[in-house]
Amino acid sequence: MAPPPRRWRAPGLLMVALMIGACAGPETLRLRAESVPVELAAVPFHPQDEYHCGPAALATVLAADGVDVSPEALVPEIYVPARQGSLQAEIIAAVRRRARVPFVLAPHIDAALAELHAGRPVLVLQNLGTRGLPVWHYAVVVGFDPRQQRFVLRSGRERRLEMSARRFLQSWDRAGRWMLVVARPDAPPVSAEVQSWLRAVAAFESLGELKIAITAYRAATRRWPAVPMTWTALGNGLAQRGLWASAARAYERALTSGGDTPWLRNNHAWVLAQMGCRADALAEIDAALTAAVEPAQRDTLRDTRARIETLQPDAVCDR
Amino acid sequence: MDGCRGVLAVVVAVALGMATIAAPASAAIVGTEQMLSPSAARNQVEAFIARADVQQKLQDWGIDPADAQRRVAALTESELQGLAARIDELPAGAGALEVIGVVFLVLLILELVGVINVFTAI
Question: A193-309 in CATH: which number?
Fold first, then answer.
């Protein structure tokens, strides 16, 4: 083939330079600094049929965490026929249904490496097309070979697909760097930050799965005992199950570790009121009202105060 | 009109479903989700409509009504609002198999217009 006309070369070279420049970013450099290979060879494989890469990938990460489910069983939960694929939100919900915490990793390759080294496979969303013409695909990262700079994936019909770090990072970046791991409620993933773990668990609480939420919040208090929000969240879970005394203890721990917020005082006040400690409860809700400025928040606090006032005034306080 | 009726039907179905869920025992407790995202002040009506919208969308996309109802029930309010806002644009991971087709097509076009020359045997 004849070389392209000279005037085309400069922009062509510039484009190539830009593409390389875009790839040798912090993530690529991070991978080049990696020296220890990792491959979770024991992670099972579910070959996908047709468009079922979502169910296949999800069944793979669930199996790795001890949940035995076939891709076929997941199809009615997460497959959307007209889109010939699966939505991220539904994958998250399907993990929750199996009493596991769906944890979305921070959007850095570091997080994936940390999870792999801790023995946890990572479900990723890839865009194998371009930004304008996306081809979405779910796969499971099970290894990384630093010498070859290659990722190992369970993908489609390939049990062991090797993909160059460059191509993998591109496909992952184009899909919004979405990575998910599956965790037992009592074991937050190694790369988890306290806020992200609490957020992931709070969904169980909102959906009324309180036992799972409590277990996972308790795990958070063990891992991040100095963070008051872990104790507050534990208190919230316990309070919603009506376990007043333990909830009060958790809230008090949050308060003594510097977690004083109007919402915390609101919940603590309600728990105290349920324990028959009406005077303490009113003092607590008034402290919350003094600190609160936002109108919507003040409305809620006043509502709680009114509810406390309607409770029996002569109950025995068993604090 | 039909679409409207569909949404209405789903709203009613969701309302009936919700009516059977008992109100939380500790209504005065502010949940962790709300504490963590103060900006997402829960608008009950919006959340309710989002649930109906997403359920309707799933049905339009070929999922049977009972499954669609179960599926939206497993999503939180914030997840539903995120979905309802832009469900059509969100990625739906499909299969790597179709990529082969796309790549083949691109190669074929490039070949035909003479940019590349990989199909020498053809």
Answer: 1.25.40.10
| pLDDT tens sequence across A108-157 | 999 999 999 999 999 999 999 888 888 999 999 999 999 999 999 999 99
Asked if the Cβ–Cβ distance from B25 to A202 is below 8 Å, we say no
Residue from B20, B29, B78, B97 to probe the interface with A (highest A Cβ count within 10 Å): B29
Q: CB of B29 within 8 Å of any CB in chain A?
A: yes
d(CA A237, CA A256): 19
Prediction pTM value? 0.83
Task: Enumerate the domain spans of chain A.
Answer: 38-183, 193-309
d(CA A194, CA A204) in angstroms, rounded, equals 16
Contact A143, A170 (CB under 8 A): no
Residues 6+ apart with CB under 8 A from A233: A198, A201, A202, A205, A217, A220, B32, B35
The vertex-B72 CA angle with B70 and B73, nearest 5°, equals 60
Domain A38-183 is in which class?
alpha beta
